[in-house]
Structure prediction request, 569 residues.
Amino acid sequence: MSHTFTSIRTSTSSQTVGIGSRLRVDGLSVRFQISGVAPDRATVHAVTDARFEVRQGECLALVGESGCGKSVMAHALLGLLPANAEVTGAARLETDGAEPVDLVGAPEAVLARRVRGRMIGLVPQSPAAHLTPVRTARAQLAEALRELGRPAGSDDLAALARRVGLRPADLDLYPHQLSGGMAQRVANALALAGDPWLIVADEPTTGLDRPLVQTIVSELRRLTDEGRAVLLITHDLRAAEQVADRVAVMYAGRIVSLTSAAEFFARPRHPYAAGLLDALPSRRFTPIPGHPPELTMLPAGCAFRPRCHRATAACERLPEPDEVACHHPLEHHVVR
Amino acid sequence: MLFAEGSPAEGLRADGITVAYDRRRVLDGTSLTVRPGIVTGLAGPSGCGKSTLARVLAMLLRPAAGRLTVDGTEVRRWRHRADLRTRVALIFQQPRLAVDPRFTLLDVIVEPLLAAGRPAADAIAHGERLADEMSLTADLLTRRRHEVSDGQLQRACVARALALRPRYVICDEMTTMLDASTQAHLVARLESYRQETGAGVLAVTHDTDLLARWCEAGAVHHLPAPDGTSLVR
Prediction:
């Protein structure tokens, strides 16, 4: 029952447009205050003390169960959280040849004029829903370019369409006339319109069939190999396996494991990472017992403790944030 | 078979089903049988009509042509056939679109029991048992759709689907939106239900790993891709 995926990673460093830019996230936390509930349940600990780095030319996959804080992280980086969110820590965007920007403290004007679209491009979940239904792809792309201060003629639009795998004539279609794959390419074109070096892809493969997933995964890898940095947020481990260089595993708002993709898929050391992989139909197909904890009522210490077969009294203390944040990491987990 | 009432379980049969939306024909003379006691697979690319066929099998969509029979009884009137309708349950891909936003999770699970005329106290006790079998804890049962995760909501939808002990369960991309652990949990619950009751399961999915792992060997149907004339690429 084992499936081997052909890796589509290629070494195309010659195309790389510069490797100096990086995103450094250091101690990022996001809290939401909710009203109308008991005070001990009023704080949602959506993201806690996240630390990672993504450089140009690499793809980092952020994986975890639904509700673990993955998408909140993406929105925090883009400054798109609702007003009741409290963000602390730092997320520095260090762009080659430009002043670094701390995404956490930056005023909206800076995010709008310098960051979104120009430094960070978002590949959204369900691109068909992301497009305006009453306007053609061309009109939306032209608007994006105009707003980015790059008014474009039809030749530029055609070039951008070709770059994402569309025929220029396809741009004259309305969103309902686009297949899922084409809508995804239009969304990619919008994300790339301002030539950002960091791409944040938020669950780009959810609900799509495998050939389409394959197309998107190849596209993300191509963007990485062009020298962009790609942060892929997904619960689709098979998609992550094909594209990621490193894998960060998020559980109850914390990154509990951050290792190379090769190590994550072949020798996961965090018990939660091993549990996720064992649940795949191509592997043991056994669920992790229990539920993720409520983000309003996190247990003290390691949040995975109530579901972990290796938990001991030591786990009541929070493990050090490390490559593998666990008191009892697995030595040789046999993955089947 | 272990179902008390009605005719013996002979299968849920669709014969020569044709469905068109506007002028676009999505199914053209398609036939499929969901046999009791086994897991049948239904695969195919996006847009090939998998979900449409699932809706026909669940008697939610009347086809333009073709026959549907439930354990030998042909479905003729497509309304008000509770005795046939309750033999088939459907689990949808997106639980958020399949649940009334005003309902608590317990309301969701209990609704079919109340609709079938069970006394309220009895229905609630039964609903709580069903929830427990899905590992939904008591604190979750008082919450509404927007207060739970996709995985928790889909667990409630599975409990709802099994409430009236259907003979056939149609899982239309039931786990596509969910993480691997929740997927394994939901499939394990359906497997225990199938083994306990001899129900037939139709797994509609494009996930080849899942089909290979879950479905009876040789019982996977593949619908062809939609033809190029009716869809833009």
Q: What stands out?
A: The mean pLDDT of chain A is 88. The beta strands of chain A are 22-33, 43-55, 59-63, 85-94, 101-102, 120-123, 198-202, 229-234, 246-251, 254-260.
